[in-house]
Structure prediction request, 346 residues.
Amino acid sequence: MRNWINPEAVMSPNEYQKLIGAALALKNTDWESKGAVLKSRAIYFLFFNQSLRTRSSFQTGLAKLGGIPVVLDPQAGIYTPALPGREIPYATERISDVARVLSEYGDAIAIRMYGEPAGWVYGEAHRAMVEFSQWASIPIINMECDKFHPCQALADMITIREKFGAKRKKIVISWAYSGSWHKPVAVPQSVLLASANCALDIVLAYPEGFELDEEIVKLAESKAQLSGGSLRITHSFDEAIEGADIVYAKSWCSLKHLPEQYGDTVEEVAMTSLFEANRDWIYDDSKRLRTASDSIYMHCLPADRGQEVTDEIIDGASSAVFAQASNRMHAQNAAMVHLLNPGALE
Ligand code: CP
Prediction:
């Protein structure tokens, strides 16, 4: 694989499960022996959006593997990389030029872009990611666009594998309320595809109006068939979680109320009222009692406590959120080694 844009979509279930095995093997190898696996390899990190986990785990992981992390600020420190037609004189620089320049110096370009920097047009940030990949002669790593968050999904599958092994388990991927509508659909979509690759029995739960990308749901259905898992959709949170082994409850925006054209605005009033009508979609102890006795709660973080999930759950014994955060670094290390020194994973 040359790029890391949406591995959970393009890899077969078999390939994806092998990658989880490789990531776990890398995690369980001592640092000293893997210290020089990416010696002197430079990766450019472009964050168009805020980040705690992705930013710190990528930089730390690459440094521990012997590489050179270079963080570039697309909003201030450099000319903002832009697609044709989105350019502003002496403020932006065409993505094709940025990609080719950075390819002259380093070994990969990692990008986070969703939401406002892409005008909230669904798919526009992903288009920028693909544009980078078409012009760069070095790999592109997706650190979250508006369609996919492959690093999060791989970390989550590693976490599930560590807890339950490769057993067939029921995962509920559920929408949850938040006081902000600004969370993209990248996490639920990537977790959906990754879960389908891993032969999990998936229940996708959301109030009407929070449908995910139809093409991605169809792809997940075909992956589930291939892997031996299953996928169904419900609009009842209570019904979904009955007997669940894994509850992944988090908020995401309604694609219906995003603009279709760049320059148009988000339908904020309709978006907000759809959120407010579903304030009861919070994961709490009363819901946990309906799940399996050893069920885990997952969230990519940052979580909106008291809105998406209660303190009791996120700080409680069933919470896997810090194991997930920890596995971000191991998943990304595997991705970086997979792209830049694949022989080291064998
Ligand atoms: N889960 C996640 O991607 O966290 P950050 O936004 O902090 O990077």
Remarks:
- The domain at 7-148+328-345 is CATH 3.40.50.1370 (Rossmann fold).
